Amino acid sequence: MKLSHLPLRLTTGAFILNSGLNKRNLDAESAAGLQQMAANAFPQVQDLDAVRFGKLLSNAEICVGLSLLLPFIPSRLAGLILGAFSGGMIRMYLKTPGMTEEDGIRPTAAGTGLAKDTWMAGIAAALLLDGGKKKTKVKVVKVPTPVKAAAAVAGVETAGKAARKAAGKASKGAAKAAKATAAGKAAAAAGKAVKDKAAKN
Description:
mainly alpha; rod-shaped; 7 helices
C-alpha cells in the first residue's frame, strides 16, 4: 500500500465498515425499505426475504470496508471492489424515483444522501489508476565518440611514457653493471701483473 493511498483507504473503509456493522441487526421493516430502493436498480433482489437481504447487504458492506482497511490487499484490488460497490449505489441513486431533478442527474433534497456516494467512485478510480508498481528505469548515459577517442589517446601516451621510463632505468642499470665488470677485470689484470713481476725478481 502506498503512503498516498492510506488516507483514502482508511477513511472510506472505516465509513463503509461502520455502515455494514450498523446493519447487522436490521428489523424486517427497515430491511424491506432498503430492499425496495435496491429493487429500483436491481429488480432481482425482490425475490429475497427482507431480513435475508438486510444481512446480505450488511455482510457486503463489511467485506468492502475490510478490503480497504487491510494493508496486505493491493490498492488496485481494493479499488476494483470499491468501484463495483459505488457503481451499485450510483445506479440505485439514478433509478430511484424522487432522488434526482428533472435532468436525471442533479440530486433533489431527498437524493442528496445517495448522491454523496459518488465520492466513493472517485476514490475507486484513484486507487485503480495509481495502484500499480512503478518500474525503475535505468538511464544509460552514452559517452560521445570524441571523448572516447581522447581517452584512448591519453591512455596510449601514458603507457608510452611508462615504457620509456622503464627502458631508461634498465639501460642505466646495464651501463653501471658493465662499468663494474670492466673495473673488476682491470683490477684482476693489475693483480696478475704484480704477481708475475714479483715472481721474476
